[in-house]
Amino acid sequence: MPDIFADFSPEEPVRIPLLDSFLELPVIIQIAVIFIFISSASIVFIQVRIWFTRYKGHRMQKRLAVLLPLIDNLISEHIILRNDVMNNSVHADNADLDIDAFRLREFRKKGNKQILIDRLISYRKGFSGSTGALLRRLYLELDLDKVSFKKMKRSQWNTKVRGIRELTDMDISISDVNILPLTNSKRNELRSEARNAYIKLSKNEPFKFFDISTEPLLKWDQIELFKTITTTENIALPSFARWVTYSSNKSIVSFCLKLIVHYNQIDAGPAVVKLLDNKDHVLRAEAINCLGKLKYEEVEQQLLHIYSNQPLNCQLEILKAIGRMETRHSVLFLKQEFLYSTDFDIRKNAARSLVRNAPKALIEELMASSSEDGQLILKHSMNPLIKY
Amino acid sequence: MAGIGHWITTFYESTVFVYGTVLLVIYALLGLFSYLAIRNFLRKETYTNYFDLLTSPLSPGISVLAPAYNEGLSIIMNVQSLLTLNYPTFEIVLINDGSTDNSMEQLISQFELVAVDFAYNPKIKTQPINHIYKSTNPAFGKLTVIDKVNGKSKADAVNAGINIASFNYFVCTDVDCILDKNALLKLVKPVLEEQSKRVIATGATLRIANSCEIDNGVIIRMKPPRNLLARFQEMEYIRAFVLGKMGWSFINCVPNVSGGLGLFDKEIAIKAGGYDQQSFGEDMELMVRMCRYACDNDIDYAIRYIPETLCWTEGPVTVKIFKLQRTRWARGLAQLMYAHFKMLFNPKYGRAGMITFPYNFLFELLAPIVELTGILYYIYLILTGGVNYTFAILLLAFVYSYSVMITTMAILWDQLAFRHYKSWREVVYLCSTALLEFLCYHPLIVIFSLRGYYYFLTGKKHSWGNMQRQGFGQKKKT
């Protein structure tokens, strides 16, 4: 047997010619060579990743193509097309529901279970009454609420949001202990979702979080909350003047002003008037806007009184508010602002309010006596084709 | 003498080495930042219900400004497309910038327009307005058309639009661009969800519309352009918007909101002086002035970008037109740097002065010049026998593979977020274009940029002109 280790000496390291020549290169070139390999490998990896991403998307579409018709058929057969449910002759809690028909092997997988949840939610949004209630019962009896609650307990904010959204859409109550702290979360998206959920799900005091909110209500949150409040059935509406008076959170006050206008809560007028002394001119302008839209005539004289001390945005709101109130008491004031102000926006808003309030004869008189610019502003304000 | 020569070459080589290394590191960081920004965006997007915004009385109003110059070929279809945007409170202000074709006649007849006495306050000086038109048909109530004297720049036309815009935010677009139906909803969202900063501008990804299937002003199928030059631009746009702008947005250092589509805070834009009529890069110039105004007035501002494609534009398909476009852009950049040189490394301007502006100066403006000097130096070395060809090829291979990697990465980010192209073959087709960019497309960019700088230095006349577009309305569905 030949001695294959005959030439091997433990003192001499193994030499790899390619490595040797690499090590002899200057450091810069060595780095460049390493990066050539890294970049080339990355290009290949990225291409594979693109292909894999698309393949995954394709697989998902195929899965949906199989599962969605299956779910749709089951829901149609066992819930939607049932005569007793369609006629509302049976209460959802008492109706026979073949749960086993939904306990298919296909829905044991986590991903497929999620598809089922999403589909149930989608149907629930489209159906109210007994059908909606039966869909909710199905969700509960399949223990899908546990899946959603589990998501709520996870640490990632996006998973929590998903859990809350599912429970809210299925009208499953969440205890105050779990949801209230989230209404003040530092994470904006989570905070917003929790606030929406609280308004939808809380039966007694849906606006309780207004009392404890220290985090601002962003404009986007306000839009979402506004939608939730104005579309949730049987919501217990409070007098929003409460927060206008007591809340130290400016964004909550601002939002309440919008709700006061929407629900035409005239009783809130005195509370809103107090905001005219607020140091924040933006909030003051919002309060004036609110009073104008409420047509709260009692404040008209006060608005005229404070007018000259206000910044431009508040002055413009006062002019608009007077126009909206349509009392015709301030026509002289509007006329003076229109004729003598040097600010274009003030003249334009005064003209608009004059057109709403002043007698036709006065408008004609102004048209005849004012400058070319003034005439143009009046014509602009009177033209029905021009909205703004 | 030889000592000085050696010192100069060593200094040059070291400078270029540091310059190149910093640029590569910046690209790597942008790759990372853009990934994080896109991930954040997608997570939020999953739970966003734009329907709430669409139906809300609390949505802020938006004025859409669309300047047009001799766009008679497609103007009617494009205005109709703009009028169908999904948003509760908006107006379309079309500015006919003294077109010499029949654009105005077409508009009057198609949209039943009549001249109205429109009072407005010209806060920004522009060329005179001949007439302002409104439609007598309530179906087109959102449309206002300004017919003005040609101002020889897009900036003048948009400024006229800003002067009569009714709302606090305006979206600036080109009338020949195709917008996503939900563009306004998506552009305004970053403004509404900002907690402490004032969002002064929002932008979104732009793509090349060439080869896309378009039906009545709506993109129904996205495809990478068949024309090689247009395909290079598509790839460049993906890299610039999805990787570049998103990366900068992550650290609130967005250098520019594209003129094709951007939402702006009207008050800040007016106070900053509006678009500069003399500038060849008016969109970037306005952005810089808005940042400058915000810093000078202690406004804590932000500029946001979204990775979603909301606007498609027709890319030049001939080198001649492409040359005009890129020369103009380069000249605009040089003008901008010259006009705002004070901002460079000026801590008073925060991130804009310390990051955005230096990046633009060093790696956008100077890059073509550095490349030109590099080529000249290379030629000198070849002539003097100073080139180690093995090392030179290795370094070239390194730069080549790195640039292809960055572009492919941008395409991946785009694919992770939105699967725009129907088949994976189309993605591979686009990725393979990246292999040629270094050799075919990049040299053109360098040459046209240098041409732009030359025009800037010599003050040669160069109008913003007409890009001789085909018009989407003329295309057949394929």
TrEMBL record, chain A:
<keyword id="KW-0472">Membrane</keyword>
<keyword id="KW-1133">Transmembrane helix</keyword>
<dbReference type="InterPro" id="IPR011989">
    <property type="entry name" value="ARM-like"/>
</dbReference>
<dbReference type="InterPro" id="IPR016024">
    <property type="entry name" value="ARM-type_fold"/>
</dbReference>
<keyword id="KW-0812">Transmembrane</keyword>
<feature type="transmembrane region" description="Helical">
    <location>
        <begin position="27"/>
        <end position="52"/>
    </location>
</feature>
<protein>
    <recommendedName>
        <fullName>HEAT repeat protein</fullName>
    </recommendedName>
</protein>
UniProtKB/TrEMBL annotation, chain B:
<feature type="transmembrane region" description="Helical">
    <location>
        <begin position="434"/>
        <end position="456"/>
    </location>
</feature>
<dbReference type="InterPro" id="IPR029044">
    <property type="entry name" value="Nucleotide-diphossugar_trans"/>
</dbReference>
<feature type="transmembrane region" description="Helical">
    <location>
        <begin position="16"/>
        <end position="38"/>
    </location>
</feature>
<dbReference type="InterPro" id="IPR001173">
    <property type="entry name" value="Glyco_trans_2-like"/>
</dbReference>
<keyword id="KW-0812">Transmembrane</keyword>
<keyword id="KW-0808">Transferase</keyword>
<dbReference type="Pfam" id="PF13632">
    <property type="entry name" value="Glyco_trans_2_3"/>
</dbReference>
<keyword id="KW-1133">Transmembrane helix</keyword>
<keyword id="KW-0328">Glycosyltransferase</keyword>
<feature type="transmembrane region" description="Helical">
    <location>
        <begin position="389"/>
        <end position="413"/>
    </location>
</feature>
<feature type="domain" description="Glycosyltransferase 2-like">
    <location>
        <begin position="63"/>
        <end position="196"/>
    </location>
</feature>
<keyword id="KW-0472">Membrane</keyword>
<dbReference type="GO" id="GO:0016757">
    <property type="term" value="F:glycosyltransferase activity"/>
</dbReference>
<feature type="domain" description="Glycosyltransferase 2-like">
    <location>
        <begin position="242"/>
        <end position="402"/>
    </location>
</feature>
<feature type="transmembrane region" description="Helical">
    <location>
        <begin position="361"/>
        <end position="383"/>
    </location>
</feature>
<dbReference type="Pfam" id="PF00535">
    <property type="entry name" value="Glycos_transf_2"/>
</dbReference>
<protein>
    <submittedName>
        <fullName>Cellulose synthase/poly-beta-1,6-N-acetylglucosamine synthase-like glycosyltransferase</fullName>
    </submittedName>
</protein>
<comment type="similarity">
    <text>Belongs to the glycosyltransferase 2 family.</text>
</comment>
